[in-house]
Amino acid sequence: MIGISFGSQAQNRLGNPLAPQKLINSYPNPASSNINFDFQRGYDKTYTLEIYNFIGKKVWEVKNITPRYNLNLDNFYRGVYVYQLRDKNGIIIESGKFQVVK
User: Whole-model pTM?
Assistant: First the structure.
């Protein structure tokens, strides 16, 4: 019974239609020359997008981001980056990661 119950719980978590949707979508991932950030819902012009390299150093910041933002990656090194979307009070409302391949 325990095994069946566990399997059922795991299945419900993965297939939960009520799970929160992402606020921002980043693509392509991995990216080589450009990456796009598109708002899926709840856009607010006061949002700030911050990008950090793998060791935690902030490498890019865009204040008052537009609903669709294209970032040129020419000055980014190959590796994994983390983005944070912050509200006007500096609170992180979403984060994600992307990979740059060159």
Answer: 0.78
Among 49, 20, 17, which residue's Cα sits nearest to residue 36?
A: 49
Q: How far apart are CA 5 and CA 8, in angstroms?
A: 5
Nearest to residue 98, comparing CAs of 34, 16, 19, 17? Answer: 34
Indicate the pLDDT class of residue 50, thresholds 50, 70 and 90. Answer: very high
Please give the CATH architecture assigned to the domain spanning 21-100. Answer: Sandwich (2.60)
Q: What angle do CA 64, 70, 72 make, to 5 degrees?
A: 115
85 to 18, 32, 61, 82, 88: CA distances (angstroms): 22, 22, 10, 10, 10
Burial 87-100 (b: 16+ CB within 10 A, else e): eeeeeeebebebeb
CA atoms lying within 13 Å on the CB side of residue 73: 23
